[in-house]
Amino acid sequence: MKGVKSKRMPRAVRERQMMDAAVQTFGQRGYRAASMDEIAELAGVSKPLVYLYLNSKEELFTACIRREAAALIAAVEAAVEPGLPADRQLWAGLAAFFTHTAEHPDGWAVLHQQARTHGEPFALEVAAMRDEIVTFVTGLIATAAREAGAARQDPELADRDVAGLAQALVGAAESLAGWMNQTGAVSAKEAAATLMNFAWMGLGELMKGERWSSR
Amino acid sequence: MKGVKSKRMPRAVRERQMMDAAVQTFGQRGYRAASMDEIAELAGVSKPLVYLYLNSKEELFTACIRREAAALIAAVEAAVEPGLPADRQLWAGLAAFFTHTAEHPDGWAVLHQQARTHGEPFALEVAAMRDEIVTFVTGLIATAAREAGAARQDPELADRDVAGLAQALVGAAESLAGWMNQTGAVSAKEAAATLMNFAWMGLGELMKGERWSSR
Asked: Are A187 and A121 in the same domain?
């Protein structure tokens, strides 16, 4: 029975293959156009098996959103070392964000376009991920502002300002990643550098020819 | 027949009333939950009249997206005086953007949430508006960069950088406007100031306690 046994894969491996196929199909063809037949074929399994594991197209899509969101958040959080100066932390986070979205264009399309376009339940899933990223970025900016404020004994950035800046930064990153993946006009590194310059130096300094540098 | 005549409104006026009611209903209740009955009642007309003028819920929603998008773009473009220095132009555009979205929360909800959540045809409508705003902002930044570059005889911002910065700025504005209208945490003026500081001064200068000032 060795032959049979070697053909049986652990459930986790099979599920991952199905999810990989689903993310690719949803990302490239869109949620509505994607068919369970297509996903099963790409995963090299039967359609009933996909349904057995993942119930319905809706649940499969929801599972894809959750997996891709968790992977993106993990990539960004892993890149940011809390001990570093604020600008280095931001740079590491941005570089990880754009690298991950560039390397997983189908996952990003699922999160940024498909999940938001096909009804409120999916949109709420992706909003939850976004809130998590905003909270993380808010923490980064708040810590940096506290340190900078303590250094000059003059804490000036109110919580409200920090929250607004985090919203602005996350919105800018989403927009730039969407543009990068749709047009291919810039690499992940270039997108990260553009946003780092924008966010850290500001347009005003950029206009004077100043650039942020990692030194 | 004077009484009858005075009850007859020009088509344009009636249509505007229906559209106002539709934007309010779609914005507050969501596209799916909104009913044509509700919209007709709010507009003070019969449901058949709404259908006579605007054909279907889909077409009515599309007309709402177009009207609200055109109004937002017009408000921003009207506020920006081409002759002013770049930072003053940016400030005027941001102030107009956040004032308009704060004063038209239902219109903004239609554009920013509803249109993107309920299928690709609507999402494409709002993407077209977004492209128009990005083009406008790209022009602003490109002009400013050209002038600044000419002043120091060293044009450094490539077209690709300008395009990326415009994407970042528009994404930041969208994100901040959504947060402002959903949480009510800041006023339109505060949101505009936050983004002006972010975009012009950069986080680095903000951390040092610097603020952009309109002088």
From this structure: yes
Residues of chain B in contact with residue A208, where contact means CB-CB under 8 angstroms, are 148, 152
Domain count, chain A: 2
Domain coverage including residue A149: 63-207
For residue B202, the number of C-alpha atoms closer than 13 Å in the C-beta half-sphere is 23
Q: Does one domain contain both B129 and B30?
A: no
Long-range contacts of B92-97 (CB under 8 A, 24+ apart): B93/B137, B93/B140, B94/B173, B94/B192, B94/B195, B94/B196, B94/B199, B95/B188, B95/B189, B95/B192, B97/B72, B97/B173, B97/B177, B97/B192
Which residue, among B113, B154, B159, B175, would best test binding to A if mutated, counting the most A CBs under 10 Å from its CB?
B175
The pTM score is 0.87
Pairwise CA distance, residues A104 & A129, whole Å: 16
**A142-156, A158-172, B169-183: least confidently modelled range:** A142-156
Q: Which candidate from B168, B178, B190 shows the least CB-CB separation from A172?
A: B168
**A28 to chain B nearest CA, in Å?**
14
Question: Considering only residues 31 to 50 of chain A, which have any Cβ-Cβ distance to chain B shorter than 8 Å?
Answer: 32
Distance of residue A186 Cα from the nearest chain B Cα, in angstroms: 8
